[in-house]
């Protein structure tokens, strides 16, 4: 029985899925965290929200560590008398290692640090990928940051109008589809832009995310201002013997991904050839053929027959810009901007590109205007001029249907200055 | 030197970035980096990846509530030490992966994980979340930590995942089903491209805290924050500078409250849940697409949100029965037509579901092709 009576939250201890309520209670009972009352009071204030159906957290105040404008989010509850343990309950965002591998040793060091300086509650991980330490008081922030940097050799992540903590899929560390080293790219880009990450100077947030292939496991196309998605330019590599093994039933299609249901015998024609969005494949006489020039690399055939088909060898990434959630002008996905870029350390081409984008956005963007909204407001054409890219049909789904073209004076022979008197000599009023 | 409170800037270290990820790789991952050839899902939640060298790495994936205690993390560390040489990782969707290079350890690890339960009775480490099943719901902070939510996050997710639990541990869906939750339209969780999105929304315009608004807020910023220009300057009865909201123009986005704490809009009956479906991120077969609003409002029903749970379950069940293999939920709805989607799922179609914002026209039907 906790400090507060929480009959509604207790209902969330039932059922098979891991219960965050049980977990907070176990921390309250057994944990060695320094802010003793925090877990119990968190349950108390959440129970109050469950009764009231409204949050009891207030806007954050300006808190942080010296010299940084991000990484800490101030949080205060609106019933500090009743719940003193969470009266001040700031969030600390700690920059996760690329693709979130840990050793038990390092995980314990993070736990130790957070026991010394906070509530003992975390998010592993937050939506943007950070290790989130959930709930501490202002006096713990500087010592926590000192120990984080000195003892754990580890920095904070981003918050506010700055570069947010970049994130990537697990890439080449454990996936055969990775078209570039997402983890190294993410790490190097994060380190190259520490200034932008820690000291807000942008109109609004800016996110990088790095997907290794068009399957898009880290959702970059939906939620990052710059989405870098792996792709290749040459041919899919085919192991014809393995194709036959799939057809013959010796290999499990889809790497076993559909195996809890009987979908019948694998049918390469129906499941692969006919599903290809560009109809660029055929299968006959025991041989699979792909017209690679017509392939759009949707990944379906590779996903279905991973032991027979492999990504090409001339690999890199497509770079897309402008994704965001609905606030304010409506949700946007990123727009294909650079169809192909080689992705090799030290990633100078990518850095040069994003710096041009930032210069323009910082110059033209309004307060709280995401890049995607700026591109819509100023036009894709202007965006391309700024980043010095030639237009390419790959950048659009279709050409414009309205003919209202904003011609520039220099594009029109003789310019726009004309003489009305000369005109009137030929055309009487 | 330990931290010296009298001299906080002494020996300061800044801008060092994250830990280098390769320090945390299991040896077999380090050795075979970039040389993986294929993978296979051996059973729900258990994968093997095979490298050119013939080396294998086994992954056991378990679900987790994103809000985790240090006590639970320590237990994970202990499990990683016992079976995995001390290595583990987390996924984008808040799952935990235990990595093993010795096949003989997989079964004992899985059995151990399945045996661990919280005092309250729920599993600590349910195994699953792979292939054509329903993996963990990514979500936001909700009433646990956020000032703008319309709904809780962790509680709704817990209730929905309890009802989808069998799907987490199996792979019988036509294609992966990604469920996501954001507790307000800010969508720090970006749920707008999910097969099923559970979204917190408000339905009452902000209140104005007239006595305080000029002290707490930059009034022009709050005015400028409104996408429909519904906010204008006003004076209180006592003559203080304040704002007023043209309620008929309000679309309840909450952007003004983000800018100004004196304009709260969350409400016991006004706030609740909208359900969106049919989005996807992957480029597989069809292009990525947005989720569409199919249920405009479900009341907040703590502690277990039964109407929301039922709505999600119903959509999942109809989809699972009706869709073809490889068809994502949105692909299925497009093939059968949205009119059929509403018929089959028995969801009423109301005027709220017709777009009337910026890109509205692009979603109306300019065709005589429809189904009776």
From TrEMBL, chain A:
One of its GO terms (biological process) is sulfate assimilation. SUPFAM superfamilies: 4Fe-4S ferredoxins, Nitrite and sulphite reductase 4Fe-4S domain-like, Nitrite/Sulfite reductase N-terminal domain-like. Its EC number is 1.8.99.5. Pfam families: NIR_SIR, NIR_SIR_ferr. Residues 286-314 form the 4Fe-4S ferredoxin-type domain. GO terms for cellular component: sulfite reductase complex (NADPH). Keywords: 4Fe-4S, Iron, Iron-sulfur, Metal-binding, Oxidoreductase. Signal peptide: none annotated. The keyword Nucleus does not apply. InterPro entries: 4Fe4S_Fe-S-bd, DsrA, NiRdtase/SiRdtase_haem-b_fer, Nit/Sulf_reduc_fer-like_dom_sf, NO2/SO3_Rdtase_4Fe4S_dom, NO2/SO3_Rdtase_4Fe4S_prot, NO2/SO3_Rdtase_4Fe4S_sf. The keyword 4Fe-4S applies. GO terms for molecular function: 4 iron, 4 sulfur cluster binding; dissimilatory sulfite reductase (NADH) activity; heme binding; metal ion binding; sulfite reductase (ferredoxin) activity; sulfite reductase activity. PANTHER family: ANAEROBIC SULFITE REDUCTASE SUBUNIT C (PTHR11493:SF54), SULFITE REDUCTASE [NADPH] SUBUNIT BETA-RELATED (PTHR11493). NCBIfam families: dsrA. This is Dissimilatory-type sulfite reductase subunit alpha.
UniProtKB/TrEMBL annotation, chain B:
Transmembrane segments: none annotated. It is an enzyme of class 1 (oxidoreductase). It holds the Pfam family NIR_SIR_ferr. GO terms for molecular function: 4 iron, 4 sulfur cluster binding; dissimilatory sulfite reductase (NADH) activity; electron transfer activity; heme binding; metal ion binding; sulfite reductase (ferredoxin) activity; sulfite reductase activity. GO terms for cellular component: sulfite reductase complex (NADPH). Gene3D superfamilies: 3.30.70.20, 3.30.70.3340, Sulfite Reductase Hemoprotein, domain 1 (3.30.413.10). GO terms for biological process: sulfate assimilation. Residues 241-268 form the 4Fe-4S ferredoxin-type domain. InterPro entries: 4Fe4S_Fe-S-bd, DsrB, NiRdtase/SiRdtase_haem-b_fer, Nit/Sulf_reduc_fer-like_dom_sf, NO2/SO3_Rdtase_4Fe4S_dom, NO2/SO3_Rdtase_4Fe4S_prot, NO2/SO3_Rdtase_4Fe4S_sf. Keywords: 4Fe-4S, Iron, Iron-sulfur, Metal-binding, Oxidoreductase. The keyword Iron-sulfur applies. Its EC number is 1.8.99.5. Its cofactor is [4Fe-4S] cluster; siroheme. This is Dissimilatory-type sulfite reductase subunit beta. It comes from Desulfomonile tiedjei. The lineage of its organism: Bacteria, Pseudomonadati, Thermodesulfobacteriota, Desulfomonilia, Desulfomonilales.
């Amino acid at each position: 029985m906790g400090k507060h009576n929480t009959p509604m939250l207790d209902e969330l201890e039932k059922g098979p899925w891991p219960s965050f309520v049980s977990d907070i209670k176990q921390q309250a009972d057994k944990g060695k965290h320094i802010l003793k009352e925090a877990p119990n009071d968190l349950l108390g204030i959440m129970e109050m929200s469950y009764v009231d159906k409204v949050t009891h957290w207030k806007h954050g105040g300006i808190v942080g560590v010296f010299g940084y404008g991000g990484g800490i989010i101030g949080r205060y509850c609106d019933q500090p008398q009743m719940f003193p343990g969470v009266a001040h309950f700031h969030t600390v965002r700690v920059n996760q290692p690329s693709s979130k591998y840990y050793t038990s040793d390092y995980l314990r060091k993070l736990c130790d640090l957070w026991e010394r300086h906070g509530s003992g509650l975390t998010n592993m991980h937050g939506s943007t990928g950070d290790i989130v330490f959930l709930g501490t008081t202002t006096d713990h922030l500087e010592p926590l940051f000192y120990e984080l940097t000195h003892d754990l050799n580890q920095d904070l992540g981003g918050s506010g109008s700055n570069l947010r903590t970049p994130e990537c899929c697990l890439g080449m560390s454990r996936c055969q589809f990775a078209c570039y080293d997402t983890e190294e790219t993410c790490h190097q880009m994060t380190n190259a832009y520490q200034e932008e990450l820690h000291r807000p100077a942008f109109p609004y947030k800016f996110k990088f995310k790095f997907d290794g292939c068009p399957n898009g496991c880290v959702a970059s196309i939906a939620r990052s201002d710059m989405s870098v998605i792996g792709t290749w330019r040459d041919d899919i590599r085919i192991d014809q013997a393995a194709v036959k093994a799939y057809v013959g039933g010796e290999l499990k299609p889809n790497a076993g991904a559909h195996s809890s249901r009987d979908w019948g015998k694998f049918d390469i024609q129906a499941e692969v050839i006919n599903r290809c969005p560009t109809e660029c494949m055929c299968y006959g006489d025991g041989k699979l053929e792909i017209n690679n020039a017509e392939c759009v690399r949707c990944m379906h055939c590779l996903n279905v027959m991973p032991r027979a088909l492999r990504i090409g060898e001339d690999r890199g990434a497509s770079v897309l810009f402008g994704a965001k959630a609905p606030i304010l002008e409506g949700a946007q996905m990123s727009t294909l901007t650079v169809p192909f870029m080689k992705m090799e350390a030290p990633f100078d081409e990518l850095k040069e590109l994003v710096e041009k984008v930032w210069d323009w956005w910082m110059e033209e963007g309004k307060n709280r205007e995401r890049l995607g909204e700026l591109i819509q407001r100023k036009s894709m054409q202007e965006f391309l001029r700024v980043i010095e890219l030639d237009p390419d049909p790959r950048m659009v789904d279709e050409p414009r249907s309205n003919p209202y073209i904003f011609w520039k004076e220099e594009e029109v022979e003789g310019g726009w200055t004309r003489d009305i008197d000369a005109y009137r000599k030929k055309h009487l009023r | 030197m330990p931290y010296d409170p009298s001299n906080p800037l002494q020996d300061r270290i800044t801008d060092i970035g994250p830990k280098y990820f390769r320090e945390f790789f299991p040896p077999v991952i380090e050795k075979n980096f970039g040389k993986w050839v294929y993978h296979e899902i051996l059973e729900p939640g258990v994968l093997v990846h095979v490298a050119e060298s013939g080396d294998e790495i086994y992954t056991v994936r378990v679900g987790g509530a994103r809000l985790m205690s240090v006590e639970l993390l320590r237990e994970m560390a202990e499990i990683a030490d016992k079976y995995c040489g001390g290595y583990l990782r987390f996924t984008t969707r808040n799952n935990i992966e235990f990595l093993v290079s010795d096949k003989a350890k997989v079964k004992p690890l899985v059995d151990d994980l399945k045996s661990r339960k919280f005092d309250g009775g729920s599993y600590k480490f349910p195994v699953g979340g792979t292939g054509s099943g329903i993996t963990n719901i990514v979500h936001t902070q909700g009433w646990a930590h956020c000032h703008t939510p319309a709904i809780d996050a962790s509680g709704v997710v817990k209730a929905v995942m309890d009802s989808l639990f069998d799907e987490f541990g199996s792979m019988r869906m036509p294609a992966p089903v990604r469920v996501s939750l954001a507790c307000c339209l800010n969508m720090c969780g970006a749920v707008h491209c999910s097969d099923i999105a559970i979204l917190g929304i408000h339905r009452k315009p902000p209140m104005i805290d007239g006595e305080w608004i000029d002290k707490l807020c930059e009034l022009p910023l709050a005015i400028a924050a409104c996408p429909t220009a519904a906010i204008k300057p006003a004076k209180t009865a006592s003559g203080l500078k304040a704002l007023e909201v043209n309620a008929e123009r309000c679309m309840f986005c909450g952007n003004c409250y983000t800018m100004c704490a004196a304009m709260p809009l969350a409400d016991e009956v006004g706030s609740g849940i909208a359900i969106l479906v049919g989005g996807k991120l992957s480029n597989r077969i069809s292009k990525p697409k947005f989720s569409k609003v199919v249920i405009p409002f479900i009341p907040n029903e703590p502690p277990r949100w039964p109407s929301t749970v039922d709505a999600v379950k119903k959509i999942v069940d109809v989809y699972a029965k009706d869709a073809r293999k490889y068809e994502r939920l949105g692909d299925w709805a497009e093939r059968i037509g949205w009119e059929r989607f509403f018929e089959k799922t028995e969801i009423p179609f109301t005027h709220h579901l017709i777009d009337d914002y910026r890109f509205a026209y692009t979603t109306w039907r300019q065709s005589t092709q429809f189904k009776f």
